[in-house]
Amino acid sequence: MSNVLKQLDAVLEARKLESADSSYVASLYSKGTEKILKKIGEEANETIMAAKDLEHVNNLENKEHLVYEIADLWFHTMVLLASQNLSSEDITNELQRRFGLSGHDEKASRDQ
User: Fold this and answer.
1) What is the pLDDT of residues 26-57, one digit of tens each?
2) How many structural domains compose the chain?
3) Which of helix, strand or coil describes residue 101?
4) Coil, strand or helix: which one is 100?
5) pTM of the full predicted structure?
6) pLDDT tens digits for 59-96?
7) What is the span of the domain harbouring residue 68?
8) What angle do CA 23, 74, 88 make, to 5 degrees?
9) Considering the domain boundaries, does residue 105 fall inside one?
């Protein structure tokens, strides 16, 4: 797998030191968690709409649009992680922990 997530983690961390006027990510950090969460909600909605479009017309253009929207969603989610002093490694570690677990068993363990 590519190192793109680690590279993005590093960029997002570096943006914490930049001016909100010079960086989109720094401007999100300066506006706080509520703004970041709002962006994630917007991107999630755009992802849903792109998936619905693909369901109705399964073509290359709609597939590319869905990938584009999911990339935006992942990006803004990673901004949230970085703002909370977490990284993509925290997520991949959690996914690794779940690997090989039945989804039903994993969910049941959270419900207890």
Assistant:
1) 999 999 999 999 999 999 999 999 999 998 88
2) 1
3) coil
4) coil
5) 0.87
6) 888 999 999 999 999 999 999 999 999 999 999 999 99
7) 4-88
8) 90
9) no
